[in-house]
Amino acid sequence: MSYLDAHGYTPITVTHFVQSHANNVDALPERPVILTFDDGFADFLTHAIPILQKYNFTATLYVSTAFLDGTSLWLSREGESKRRTLTRDELRQIDTYGIECGGHSHHHPQLDMLPPHVAQEEIVTCKDSLEQTLGHQVYSFAYPFGYYTSQIRQCVYAAGYTSACAVRHMMSSEQTDPFALARLWVKPTTTPDVFGQLLEGVGQSALQTFYLQVRTPVWRAIRRCSSFVTPYKWVEGVTVRGYNM
Question: Which positions fall inside the NodB homology domain (predicted)?
Fold first, then answer.
């Protein structure tokens, strides 16, 4: 955040970016950047918000609504199922800070591995839950794990969202499909120098090549075969095929 501030970047929300382009309004700052946070962990409020407020930055937070007021049960395989997630009251508090809250599905499954009607329910339930909690419309969505298909993208559009983020390890532009927005993955090991290079477009070709490799039909087939081994997981009384837990 210090780097962004020192180099004249102005954070905006995903919806600000999409609406500015859709309305043909030249309302973007000179050096716009979008900060996104996935899942809805409680440490977004305790750790990220103070830093964002220090620099007067906004961001977009994507929330998996089934786990509000609980813990990160979808991370059981990673041994992180006890990480506290945001409560609904905390989410409402974050909303008052000017942070955009978007959908990240209800149970955080690999949406492209689900039957269409189940995927649609995940997408719609998430939006309804967020809007009931926040008291206003929610416009943006992020695909869990970054996985989606043209059918999943259509489900997101039909649910009433106006944008959706993947990963893709590259930057978005005004020509990018608003339902396939690319993002750069910044890790704890990403140094300020590397971060700066990514923002300037240096080294993205290698990242994009890696992304395209892991998104091949072969990789999707491997995930699909894995889901057949344990095709259903029971979560809060809902049967979800391919649920990553």
Answer: 31-245
